[in-house]
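User: I've been trying to design a sequence by hand for this structure and keep getting stuck. Would you show me what you'd pick, starting by listing the structure so we're on the same page?

Assistant: Good idea, let's start from the same input. This is the structure you sent:
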C-alpha cells in the first residue's frame, strides 16, 4: 500500500491480478437504502471448505444456497450469535429455497 495525499492506496500484487483474471473474485453486494440512518451494523464472514465430493456435486449445477441466521437479545442487542447453513442445489431445483 502506498500513501498519497494522506490516503492509503491499495495496489494489487501480480499474483492477485493473475487470480482475479482467472476468475477468483470478491463480489460485493449493494448497500440497502436507508442504512446511513441506522446506528449499528454486524458483519458475518463465512468460509466453506469443500471436499472432493462437494466439488463434483457443484460441477453439476454450480448453485450453492447459503443461509445466515442471527440470534440476539432484543430490543437493544448486546449479544449476537450467528449460524451458517449451506446446501448444494440439486439439478432441476429452484434456488429460491427458504429451508431444507
Amino acid at each position: 500500500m502506498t500513501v498519497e495525499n494522506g490516503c492509503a492506496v491499495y495496489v494489487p500484487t501480480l499474483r492477485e491480478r493473475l487470480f482475479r483474471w482467472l476468475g477468483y473474485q470478491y463480489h460485493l453486494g449493494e448497500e440497502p437504502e436507508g442504512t446511513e440512518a441506522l446506528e449499528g451494523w454486524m458483519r458475518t464472514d463465512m468460509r466453506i471448505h469443500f471436499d472432493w465430493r462437494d466439488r463434483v456435486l457443484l460441477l453439476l449445477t454450480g448453485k450453492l444456497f447459503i443461509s445466515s441466521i442471527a440470534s440476539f437479545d432484543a430490543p437493544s442487542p448486546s449479544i449476537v450469535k450467528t449460524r451458517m447453513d449451506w446446501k448444494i442445489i440439486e439439478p432441476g431445483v429452484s434456488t429460491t429455497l427458504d429451508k431444507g
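That's my pick for every position. To get oriented when you compare it with your attempt: The beta strands are 2-4, 7-9, 64-72, 80-88. The longest strand covers residues 64-72.
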